[in-house]
C-alpha cells in the first residue's frame, strides 16, 4: 500500500527519495510524487501516474533538487490513479504526503471550503494540507481557544492532527522552514532513520537501509520535527518524549533480487532457509520450551480452553490449516475468523480463549482492528505470529512468535505462509503439552517424549523436504503451459489440505488473474460440479492420508464429466497418469506437516502460470503488499 520516504540532510535528497520509493514499489501503488525545498527554499513538486521510473524522468526533466524532501507512492483509495490525485498535495506554501484514510475528511473538507480553500483533487489527503494551512493561519474553527495562528509548522501539524479521525502516517514540508520537516503517526506505520548526515522517515525500514540501520519507531499519536542534527518528538498528549533508537537487522542485501527473475521466485526458493531460521531453536536435541512464545506463555497455554485465530488472506489460510492441528493434537476447540468480519460481528468473548493474530506485515489494518476488538470484548490472552518484530501487532499482543522468513517483497505471500505454518505447529505442540495431550502416544523410553520427539524431528526435517519439492519446478513449469488459455480453475483438497487448496487458488488468482475457486472435494457434487468441462482445469491436492480414497472418488466425478485433472499426489498415493488425469508425484509423504510441502508446489504452479500469462508477478494489478487501510 502507499509508501512514504523523507529526508532532511546534507546531501541532495531527490535521488535518495527516488531510490527509497523504488524499494517500496513492492507495497503496491499506481502513482508517485515528491516535493523538495530547493536551494532558495522554494517548494518544488513533481508527480506522475504509473511507475517510479516515470516520476524519475519527470524529476530529471524538471530539474527538481533540494536537501529537504518528502516522497510518496500512492495506492488509490479516494480518487482514481491520476496525477492530480498523486501526493504530495499542496496548500499555499506547504506540501503533504500521507498514508492511511482520514475518516472525517468530508466534514473537514466542508469546513475548509467554507473558509475559502479550493480542492483540486479527490483525495482525503488534500484535506490535511489545507487543514495544516488553516492552523498556520489561525482559523478559529481549528486553533481553538487561543485563536491565534500556530507559530510554526510543528505546532500547526500538532493542531491539525487533533482534528483528524482515522489512520495516518504523514510528512509535511513548508517554504520558509527550509531546514526541517514534520511527521506524525496514528495507525499507519512510520519510522525515523538516524543517519550520520541527517534524519529520515519512511513507512518501511527497507527504504532507509542505504543510509542507516538506526531506527526510531514512532508510537501512535507521536508528532516529530526532523532537522539535519536533531529529532524533536511529542506524544499524543503533547508531552516531549524520547523514543529508543533501535538497530535494524535487515540488510540491504536481503531486499536485493540477486540471481532471480522475480521476488516471488526468490522467496519461494528461500523457503528452506526461512524455515530453518524460524525453527532454529530446535537445532539442538533439546525439548520444546513455551518461552519461545514469551515469558508468560507456559502459564497461559495451560490455562486456555480454546483458540480463536484472526487473520486476513494467506495468513487466514495458515490459521485454517492450524485449526486441524490444534483440534487433533491439543484437543482444544479452534475457530478461525476473517479479521475484517470478526471486527464487525457481535461475538461472545471467552476470557479463557487464546486469541492468535497471524500477519506477515504486522500492520494489516483489519487484523489490527480485530485484535483491538477482541481486547475490548475482554479477551485477556493474545498472541501474535508475525514476520516483522517492530510491527504494531507485535507491540499490542501479550505473547508473540516472530517468524524469521526475512523481508517478503512479492505481493503474493509465500515464505511468510510456510514459516507461519511452522510457528503454528510449534504452538500446537506446546498447547498439546500444556494440556497433557502428548502423553501415551508413540513409542520409546518415555511415552510422552517419544511423540514430542517424533513431531519435532519432522519439523527439523522440513527444510530438506521442501528442497525436494522445489526440485519439481521443471515438471510444474511444463504443466503451467497448459493453463495459458484458461480463464477459470478449480482447486480441490480435503481435511488439512483444503486450506492449501484455498491458498493455491488465491496464489493463482492474485498473480495470473485466472479466476480460481477452492472447494473441499466432498462439496463438489453439491454445486461446483456444474462448472466442470474441458475448459476448467481441476487442481487436486492428493496426499496419502486417511481421506485419499474419498478424494479419488471425487476425482472420478470430475473425470466422468470431461474435466481435466492436475493432481499433486504423494509418491505412495497409487494415483497414476491416464487420459485427462495428469499426476505429479510429490517426493515424500509427510503426515501432519504435509500441507507445508503441498503448498510449495501450489506456489510454483501459480508462479509459472503467471509467467506464461505475462503478468507483473511481483506487483499484480490492484493489489498492495501491506494493507494498512480498511
Ligand atoms: C497474500 O498473497 C496476499 N497478498 C494477502 O492475502 C495477505 O496475506 C493479506 O493481506 C494479509 O497480510 P498480512 O499477513 O501482512 O496481515
Task: Give a short synopsis of this structure.
34% of the residues lie in helices and 21% in strands.
Topology diagram in text:
Layout: E1 3-9, H1 13-23, E2 31-37, E3 43-49, H2 52-62, E4 68-74, E5 89-91, E6 94-99, H3 105-114, H4 125-136, H5 140-143, H6 153-161, E7 168-174, E8 180-186, E9 191-195, E10 198-202, E11 214-217, E12 223-227, E13 231-234, E14 240-241, E15 246-247, H7 263-269, H8 271-278, H9 297-303, E16 306-311, H10 313-330, E17 334-338, H11 339-342, E18 353-359, H12 365-376, E19 381-386, H13 392-395, E20 399-402, H14 415-434, H15 447-470, H16 473-481, E21 488-493, H17 498-512, E22 515-520, E23 538-542, H18 548-559, E24 565-570, E25 581-586, H19 594-613
Parallel strand pairs: 16-17, 16-18, 18-19, 19-20, 21-22, 21-23, 23-24, 24-25
Antiparallel strand pairs: 1-4, 1-10, 2-3, 2-4, 5-6, 6-7, 7-8, 8-12, 9-10, 9-11, 11-15, 12-13, 13-14
Helix pairs in contact: 1-2, 3-4, 4-6, 8-14, 8-15, 9-14, 10-14, 10-17, 15-19, 16-19, 17-19
The chain binds 2-deoxy-2-amino glucitol-6-phosphate.
CATH topology of the largest domain: Glutamine Phosphoribosylpyrophosphate, subunit 1, domain 1
Q: What is the domain total for the residues? A: 3
Cα distance spanning the termini: 11 Å
For the sheet with most strands, the description reads: 8 strands, antiparallel
Range of strand content: 15-25%
- What's the overall average pLDDT, rounded? 91
Please provide the count of β strands.
25
Helix content: 25-40%
Q: Using the 3D structure, state the CATH architecture of the largest domain.
A: 4-Layer Sandwich
List low-confidence stretches.
440-448
By CATH, the superfamily of the largest domain comes out as Aminohydrolase, N-terminal nucleophile (Ntn) domain
Global morphology: globular
Amino acid at each position: 500500500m502507499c509508501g512514504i520516504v523523507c529526508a532532511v540532510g546534507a546531501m541532495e535528497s531527490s535521488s535518495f527519495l527516488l531510490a527509497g520509493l523504488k524499494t517500496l514499489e513492492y507495497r503496491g501503488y499506481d502513482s508517485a510524487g515528491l516535493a523538495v525545498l530547493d536551494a532558495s527554499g522554494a517548494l518544488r513538486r513533481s508527480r506522475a501516474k504509473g511507475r517510479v521510473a516515470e516520476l524519475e524522468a519527470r524529476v530529471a526533466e524538471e530539474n527538481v533538487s533540494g536537501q529537504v524532501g518528502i516522497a510518496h507512492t500512492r495506492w488509490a483509495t479516494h480518487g482514481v490513479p491520476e496525477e492530480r490525485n498523486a501526493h504530495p498535495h499542496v496548500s499555499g506554501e506547504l506540501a503533504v504526503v500521507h498514508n492511511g484514510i482520514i475518516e472525517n475528511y468530508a466534514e473537514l473538507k466542508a469546513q475548509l471550503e467554507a473558509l475559502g480553500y479550493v480542492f483540486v483533487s479527490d483525495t482525503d489527503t488534500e484535506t490535511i494540507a489545507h487543514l495544516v494551512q488553516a492552523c498556520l493561519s489561525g482559523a478559529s474553527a481549528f486553533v481553538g481557544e487561543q485563536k491565534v495562528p500556530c507559530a510554526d509548522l510543528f505546532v500547526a501539524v500538532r493542531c491539525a492532527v487533533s482534528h483528524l479521525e482515522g489512520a495516518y502516517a504523514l510528512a509535511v514540508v513548508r517554504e520558509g522552514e527550509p531546514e526541517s520537516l514534520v511527521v506524525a503517526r496514528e495507525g499507519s506505520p512510520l519510522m525515523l532513520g538516524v543517519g550520520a548526515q541527517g534524519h529520515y522517515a519512511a513507512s518501511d525500514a527497507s527504504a532507509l537501509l542505504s543510509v542507516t540501520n538506526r531506527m526510531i519507531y514512532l508510537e501512535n499519536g507521536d508528532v516529530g520535527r526532523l532537522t539535519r542534527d536533531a529529532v524533536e518528538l511529542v506524544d499524543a498528549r503533547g508531552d516531549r518524549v524520547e523514543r529508543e533508537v533501535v538497530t535494524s537487522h535487515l540488510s540491504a542485501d536481503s531486499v536485493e533480487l540477486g540471481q532471480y527473475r522475480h521476488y516471488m521466485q526468490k522467496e519461494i526458493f528461500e523457503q528452506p532457509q526461512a524455515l530453518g531460521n524460524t525453527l532454529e531453536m530446535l537445532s539442538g536435541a533439546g525439548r520444546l520450551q513455551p518461552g519461545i512464545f514469551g515469558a508468560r506463555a507456559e502459564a497461559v497455554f495451560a490455562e486456555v480452553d480454546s483458540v480463536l485465530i484472526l487473520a486476513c488472506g494467506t495468513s487466514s489460510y495458515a490459521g485454517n490449516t492450524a485449526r486441524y492441528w490444534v483440534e487433533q493434537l491439543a484437543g482444544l476447540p479452534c475457530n478461525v475468523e476473517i479479521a475484517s468480519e470478526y471486527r464487525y460481528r457481535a461475538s461472545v468473548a471467552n476470557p479463557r480463549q487464546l486469541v492468535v493474530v497471524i500477519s506477515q506485515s504486522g500492520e494489516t489494518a483489519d487484523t489490527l482492528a480485530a485484535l483491538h476488538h477482541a481486547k475490548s470484548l475482554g479477551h485477556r490472552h493474545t498472541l501474535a505470529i508475525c514476520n516483522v518484530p517492530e510491527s504494531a501487532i507485535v507491540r499490542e499482543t501479550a505473547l508473540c512468535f516472530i517468524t524469521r522468513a526475512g523481508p517478503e517483497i512479492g505481493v503474493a505471500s509465500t515464505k511468510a505462509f510456510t514459516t507461519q505454518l511452522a510457528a503454528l505447529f510449534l504452538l500446537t505442540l506446546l498447547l498439546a503439552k500444556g494440556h497433557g495431550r502428548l502423553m501415551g502416544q508413540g513409542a520409546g523410553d518415555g511415552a510422552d517424549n517419544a511423540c514430542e520427539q517424533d513431531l519435532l524431528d519432522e519439523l527439523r526435517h522440513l527444510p530438506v523436504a521442501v528442497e525436494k519439492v522445489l526440485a519439481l519446478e521443471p515438471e510444474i513449469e511444463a504443466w503451467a503451459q497448459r493453463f495459458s488459455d484458461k480463464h477459470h480453475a478449480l482447486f480441490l483438497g480435503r481435511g488439512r489440505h483444503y486450506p492449501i487448496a484455498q491458498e493455491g487458488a488465491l496464489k493463482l488468482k492474485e498473480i495470473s488473474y485466472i479466476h480460481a475457486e477452492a472447494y473441499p472435494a466432498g462439496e463438489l457434487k453439491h454445486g461446483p460440479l456444474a462448472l466442470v468441462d474441458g475448459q476448467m482445469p481441476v487442481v487436486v491436492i492428493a496426499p496419502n492420508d486417511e481421506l485419499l480414497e474419498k478424494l479419488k472418488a471425487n476425482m472420478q466425478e470430475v473425470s466422468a464429466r470431461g474435466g481435466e485433472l492436475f493432481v499433486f499426489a504423494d509418491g505412495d498415493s497409487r494415483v497414476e497418469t491416464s487420459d485427462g488425469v495428469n499426476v505429479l508425484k510429490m517426493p515424500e509423504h509427510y503426515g501432519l506437516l504435509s500441507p507445508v510441502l503441498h503448498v510449495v508446489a501450489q506456489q510454483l504452479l501459480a508462479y509459472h502460470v503467471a509467467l506464461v500469462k505475462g503478468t507483473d508477478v511481483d506487483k499484480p494489478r490492484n493489489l498492495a503488499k501491506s494493507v494498512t487501510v480498511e
